[in-house]
Fold:
Amino acid sequence: MKVPREVGKHTRNKIHAENDPYLPPKGKGLAGVAICKGCTAVYQNKKWFLDVKLYEKKKTLKGITWVTCPACKKTKENVPNGVVTLKGDFLKQHKQEIMNLIHNEDARSKKYNPLKRIMKINETGGEIEILTTEGRMAQRIGSILFKAYSGEVVYKKHENTKFMRVEWKR
Ligand SMILES: [Zn+2]
Structure:
């Protein structure tokens, strides 16, 4: 089992990336102010912000560009960069508590970087699958579950991609 060093805790990530076709290449972000019509995230100074007050302030301005942000685009096209699978009897017994922890992490992450978030949660049988927009988000979820409940966690990262698969079992 390879456990990578925890990276990018709560820093605001650069919004361009070589390996992520959903993000603009370096130096080629949107010009001016844009708002995502999906999640109301506001783009300004080359960063995305998920902030209701900022949205209310900006949405009435003239010259706003309405767009679909990279995270909403990934969600729409169902192209996750991270997948976390949860399973085990402990999960079944403590599901609500565990999901609350995960939802809190999602809320916290979005506040720092709206593009780093949970896309979708699937449940089949006793298993829960969480799709995330970024590999690091999947890694983070694995890490907080392991910290809170121990169990077994496996991280599978593909070389040269940002895709990360995480499995947690207890
Ligand atoms: Zn959006």
